[in-house]
Amino acid sequence: MRHQFPYAAPGQVVGLLGGSFDPAHAGHVHITREALKRFGLDQVWWLVSPGNPLKARGPAPLDQRMERAQQVMQHPRVQVTDIEAALGTRYTAQTLARLRQSYPKVRFVWLMGADNLAQFHLWQDWRQIAQTVPMGILARPGQRISARMSRAAALYAPYRIPGRYSQLLARADAPAWCFVNVPMHDASSTAIRATGGWSA
């Protein structure tokens, strides 16, 4: 497979949305578009991962997930990438360190759904991530309360940017994070797999 390294001009702010995308769906597209708008990003890169260390079951083959993601996400400022496979990184903290080396004049913002914030303290080197890049958190169905009560939210409460000032996140220095409520979209990769709408 040909690995894709996207282009970003010096000074641009790039949002990073990582995940197995198994499969990519309209919910991923929805939060990506909201992130571009709410956080004032120049681009969003999807980081389609080789596998999720927190999940016991392996995802569908990477090339299959990449193809689906590129079909689903059609936007001039969004790029679907397999950067983690190219870099050989397994954890988000490693990926961020390599990206910051490769793109020293680009500002990165880590994007995730509120469901990921609720379990963020389980991630490898999660404090390092929070202190390396600003984080944009987008609310998803049923996860608002658990995310706001999470260990990471409590620890980094002094660095939270109120949702009404979300445009400030892109230029904030880490640690900084912003939680925004966006119109709900309940599409789920798990549900799609369960109904037979996706197979490896």
UniProtKB/TrEMBL annotation:
Residues 16-194 form the Cytidyltransferase-like domain. Keywords: ATP-binding, NAD, Nucleotide-binding, Nucleotidyltransferase, Pyridine nucleotide biosynthesis, Transferase. The lineage of its organism: Bacteria, Pseudomonadati, Pseudomonadota, Alphaproteobacteria, Rhodobacterales. PANTHER family: NICOTINATE-NUCLEOTIDE ADENYLYLTRANSFERASE-RELATED, PHOSPHOPANTETHEINE ADENYLYLTRANSFERASE. Transmembrane segments: none annotated. It comes from the Bacteria. One of its GO terms (biological process) is NAD+ biosynthetic process. It comes from Sulfitobacter mediterraneus. Pathway: Cofactor biosynthesis; NAD(+) biosynthesis; deamido-NAD(+) from nicotinate D-ribonucleotide: step 1/1. SUPFAM superfamilies: Nucleotidylyl transferase. This is Probable nicotinate-nucleotide adenylyltransferase. Its EC number is 2.7.7.18. It holds the Pfam family CTP_transf_like. CDD domains: NMNAT. Belongs to the NadD family. It catalyses: nicotinate beta-D-ribonucleotide + ATP + H(+) = deamido-NAD(+) + diphosphate. One of its GO terms (molecular function) is nicotinate-nucleotide adenylyltransferase activity. The keyword Cytoplasm does not apply. Signal peptide: none annotated. Catalyzes the reversible adenylation of nicotinate mononucleotide (NaMN) to nicotinic acid adenine dinucleotide (NaAD).
